[in-house]
Amino acid sequence: MKTSKQTKGIGFKNFRRFEDFPMLKFGDITYLVGRNNSGKSTMVKAQLLMMDYLQNQLFDTFSFDSAVLEDANIVTFGRAKNNKSKSNQIEFTSAINNIEFSVIISGKDDTTKANVHSFNVIDENEGIILEIDYLKEIIHLKRKKKRVDSDKVQLVYQLARLTSDLRDIEDQISKLQSKVSKEYLTLKDKRNSLVNQIEKIDKAIPEQKKEEGFDFNVSYPLQFLRVGQMYEVEEGDENEDDIVLSEDTMIQEFISIILYFNEIQYKKDSEESKSNNDDTFNPDSIEVHQNKVKLEKWADRVSNLINSQTFHYLPANPSKQSALFALRDKNNDLAQAIHHFKQAGLDDKAESKSFVKHWMKEFEVGEDFSIKFYAGEAYEFHIVEDGAQNHLSDKGMGSLQIMSLILKLATILFSKKQKNRNVPTVLIEEPELNLHPELQSKLCDFLLEVSNKNVLFLVETHSEYIIRRAQLIAIEEGFIMNEELNPNPFKVFYFHKKEGPYEMKLNSQGKFDRDFGKGFYNESGRLTLGMIKELRKNQAE
């Protein structure tokens, strides 16, 4: 059964060709369409960079040269920065469910690492805002007050309706010529009645206005804690300024800092309150103290959310035709796909093998397969077709390309199942390479089946057939008729070179609400019209 996936998204400023890239929220399968050099890969690279920062606990350093970022090919801050911007800062914002993580960085053009100016976490569900200012060396923690209760929400809605009705009646009154007519008097009575109702409701709402703001809003110096230092070091201790990182994750460490200094403040207030025989407590300090356990659990939950994310980048690397696939050949995409599949033991698992065989047939590669390992150095991959066994390398480039994708997704899918991981995100670059148009269309069905097993896809494509197939599936399955009960798993973003990226949504007739840029859907029609014109010209001559 298909379970609900996480919602993810990315936005950034002054990165590569974009001065301001809006936050784009992904679907289950998100297609990125646009002309060459329109910024599709930039969005993918931004996601990889941001997740590397979050998961590797880099604190005040943002890296462009991590091993997992080799395919992103950014390398230095200078190559990352928008060359038209006057600002020397880059900002990234990544969303996972209703939590946003943002970081502002700057650096020198020839350096592979940048300095982090600030790091913020905003949890909309909990109303928690965590702000780390590395320049001022201050850490802030806020929690917004809960929204109005249902009764007060109704009052607000009622006030809006009555105010709208009042405007309508006043508009009718202003158009009447006679001020003594029956219609005028009737409208005036209604107006007075509405004014009285609005005044009563308006008096009931100010209570909520007093509740707006924050449950607490505290700021403390950004001093990292030693393991076991929490609640043990007295204020003024000679070791208090030691900056030694604990074993906590980044988010847990920040909350530990807040709680550590808040306990010092709370203890100080408590002692002053006893000696002065009065209430000298800071209400924010009390609130944080009372929510200590909840904040620690929140930090654990957010840290687990970050660490559970898995991103797989599958670049468009043409496979090599070779009888033997050397496991040490890091530049051979297919060799690595075979290696990881075999090492995971998936060629001996019925479910994973059945998955591979099914999609081999669908993409006309063969009916069965076998993998042999020689001397711990290389693999031989055989395809069974029409009762005969042949080397995979004897197949065409399209078959090699699609087999690489099938094996990679099988490894991701079934390794995920064994390790009980969270929802992985797979970023694929041009999966349609070397495929016949009909098989390009079938890619959409392939990705949908894998997505239904709880995998998110972010796909760069130039294939009209993939997009048209997604359109047809959305109509066939009724995805566009009731988004709430049967949401459309497909999202399409078009990257316009001048206007920037925008979402292409399907209307109730299954048509996109906006046009693709020049040269995508209209290219085949343009060529057809050109041929018709030339034929007519030739006939006239």
TrEMBL record:
<dbReference type="InterPro" id="IPR051396">
    <property type="entry name" value="Bact_Antivir_Def_Nuclease"/>
</dbReference>
<dbReference type="InterPro" id="IPR027417">
    <property type="entry name" value="P-loop_NTPase"/>
</dbReference>
<dbReference type="InterPro" id="IPR041685">
    <property type="entry name" value="AAA_GajA/Old/RecF-like"/>
</dbReference>
<feature type="domain" description="Endonuclease GajA/Old nuclease/RecF-like AAA">
    <location>
        <begin position="13"/>
        <end position="467"/>
    </location>
</feature>
<protein>
    <recommendedName>
        <fullName>Endonuclease GajA/Old nuclease/RecF-like AAA domain-containing protein</fullName>
    </recommendedName>
</protein>
<dbReference type="Pfam" id="PF13175">
    <property type="entry name" value="AAA_15"/>
</dbReference>
